[in-house]
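[job 4471] stage=fold_predict status=RUNNING
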Amino acid sequence: MMNWSQSSWLRVFALLAGVLAVTGLATAATQYVVTNDDPGVSFFAVGPNGQLTLLQQFQIGGFGNAAGFFGTNRLAVLDSGNQQCVYASVSSTGDITGISVSTLTIGGSASGSPTDNGAANGIGLAVNSQYLYASFTSSNTIGTFQVLSGCSLSFVNDVSVSGLAGGMINGMAIHGNMMVTTFTDGSIQSFDTSTGTPVSNGDEQYSTATLSSNDATYPNGIDITADGHYAIFGDTSTSVVVEVSDISSGQLAPTVVYSSKSSISSNNIMLSPDETILYVVNTQGASVGAMFFNKSTGTLSQGCTAALVKGESANWQYLGALGLISQSGNGGGVYVAEFGNPSAIALVALNSSGGKCSLHEVPQSPFSDPGSAGLLSIGTFPPRSF
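[job 4471] inference complete, writing structure tokens
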């Protein structure tokens, strides 16, 4: 019988770990929270009870922008086949960088046309298995990039867009062959992406809440249901305003408005994996809420709101984008970006049973993000399945 030394076993385990990493299996059980520090990207490993540990920071050039629209998500996460990528934009340079999750290395970067510009308020990203779309807020253009192997990108073209009153492009989401966008004047619009390049569906309109509030409320962040039946909008408002549009016809229908006086603004939203909960970040109200969602009817009902997230004004000024704690069930709560210098990530947990719920920030929250002087965009890997 061969007598294996401890060092021999260690070499075997190291070799096995390398093989698993190459095949992608090593990352199957790995969870990350990722931040766009603009410039730069930080990966946090998710430990027991949601604890975050800074794992690696990437410097991707430029001087960044610690400001921008809440609904303009500067991160996009792709988990499709052998492509496991995080894409991040840099406002100052207009570059979009792809990072391989399996190797934690930069795969490449690309920029749009010479006139594409997002320096003032950021560059939003949305991705599917074939294309990445970039919303350049200053030039009011949407760039189309082909997704290549190794998380690299190739610029295809761009199209000019605008709100009905000249508003800048803000939020952006894609599902199947439909892209849905918001503009800073309260306009919403959808596009057909079946050929890659977005083509308007001819349905641009003001949201119902914008019209009824005399422009005091406007849609910002967007989410789309798993079956593509409904688009949901989180609004900038002096209260909590969420709007739902039926998009099953291939066009946006007039939105149905749901409102509450429980907090201020509702710019960033996300459906739970089972679509029973809509998480709502009260970006200027310093809290996180949850609304019950009926995915069959597209209706929302009252849920719960957490106490104020710790550290407002003293450590941070606004709450930003969110990521799910779990990619199954009701998500278990969310990670939330804290816009400060330096910034941090809050962890707000959900308990839900029998048509009732509660939210609370966990004792170990927040987790510092030393790379960011104004964190607005975060993501998780693996991402939600839709």
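[job 4471] summary: Residues 1-28 have pLDDT under 50 and may be disordered.
[job 4471] exit 0
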